[in-house]
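Subject line: Sequence and fold of a protein, written as C-alpha cells
Body of memo: The sequence and its C-alpha cells, given next.
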Amino acid sequence: MDYIIAKWLHILSSTLLFGTGIGTAYYFFFASLTRNPPIMAAVARNVVTADWAFTATTMVIQPLTGFYLVYLTGIPLTSRWIMWSTGLYLLAGACWVPVVWLQIRMHHLASHASRSESELPALYWRYFRLWIALGIPAFVALVIVFYLMVAKPA
C-alpha cells in the first residue's frame, strides 16, 4: 500500500472514530436526560451498534495505518509526538472498553424499564455518571492526538 492510500485510510478512520464517538455520545447523553425508557432503550441500542460497527473497526485501523505511515516516512517510534499520541490513544481505548460495557448494561436497564413500564433504577444513573467520567478523558485524549497527528511537534 502506498503512502497516499495509507494516509487517506488513516485520516478517514480517525474521522469515523472521532465523529462516531462524539455523535453517539451526544445522542446517548440527551436521550438519557429525557428519562423516557423507550427512547433511552432505542437510542442505547443504536449507540451500541454504531460503536461495534464504526468505533471498534476504526480503533483497529488507526494504529495499523498510523504505524505503517511512521514506517514509510522513517519517523522514529521514539519521537516525542509518536509516544504521546500512542499513550493518549491507549488511554482513550482504555476508557472506551468500559464505556461500551456500560452502554450495553444501560441499554438492558432501559429496555427492562420500558417493557415493565417502570422507572429507571438508580444503577442506571450510577452507570451514566461513570460513562460521563470515562468519556471526558477519552474525548480530550483524542483531541490532543488529532493535534499531534497534524502538527507533529518536535
About this structure: The two ends are 27 Å apart (CA to CA). Residues 21 and 98 are 14 Å apart (CA to CA). Helices lie at 3-33, 37-73, 80-116, 122-151. DSSP finds four helices and no strands in the chain.
